[in-house]
Amino acid sequence: MSRRIAVVEDEAELATLIEYNLTRSGFQPKIFGGEDGTIAALEKFQPDLIILDVMLPGHDGFELCRRIRAGGQMTRVPVVFLTARSDEVDRVLGLEIGGDDYITKPFSPRELVARVKAHLRRSEGEAVQESSEIRLGPFRLDQAARRVYQNGNEVELTSTEFKLLEFFITHPGHAFSREQLLRHVWGEQHFVTPRTVDVHVRRLREQIEVKPDEPVFLATVRGFGYRFETA
Ligand code: CA
């Protein structure tokens, strides 16, 4: 079954180029202009992945991503931002509000298709996993459903946050450097930097720690990285 890719991009020429390359690679793309009503149209399309331009008429891509992540059926759909602005602040903002990847214009269609494939491979790999449940302290990780519960309450996570927490929960007590975490959790996404790890760890702490500044579970290993504490 060909995978549905939503292309939210108001520049018609670029949108058509992306559409052409995705179609040629066996995907089923659909272009959205980013105007009011885009969220409803996306929900109807049920994309397997969303390519989201940052500069859009009306709401910008970050705002759309916030809404996509705010709830509903698209909470876990991978989001790849497109932007002309490449500085670190924007990059971090994009990831903090739940983007999974970031591509700076101009980009080659080949690069875009490769990123799309990488993300879909990951989410497909996740989907076919055997149903398995891991319990660690107050945490229950349902790998098949991609959900984490803490003391019985679901922890709301983006797909990247889930992958990071999953990695920690399945490797308790081990210290990992930022580079190791990047390699294991982000894999072939070359755009990420060690700072990306810090951003996501902070977000995870805000979700699972009573006092994010005094973490009990997600400990900092000074001068090295992070370690997930079991007790
Ligand atoms: Ca645009």
Could you give the topology of this structure?
Elements: E1 4-8, H1 12-24, E2 28-32, H2 38-45, E3 49-53, H3 61-69, E4 79-83, H4 88-96, E5 101-104, H5 109-127, E6 133-136, E7 139-142, E8 147-150, E9 153-155, H6 159-170, E10 175-177, H7 178-186, H8 194-208, E11 218-221, E12 225-228
Parallel strand pairs: 1-2, 1-3, 3-4, 4-5
Antiparallel strand pairs: 6-7, 7-8, 8-9, 10-12, 11-12
Helix pairs in contact: 1-5, 6-7, 6-8, 7-8
Bound molecules: calcium ion.
Quick structural summary:
This protein has helices spanning 12-24, 38-45, 61-69, 88-96, 109-127, 159-170, 178-186, 194-208; strands at residues 4-8, 28-32, 49-53, 79-83, 101-104, 133-136, 139-142, 147-150, 153-155, 175-177, 218-221, 225-228. With 231 residues, it is of the alpha/beta class. It is globular, with a radius of gyration of 18 Å.
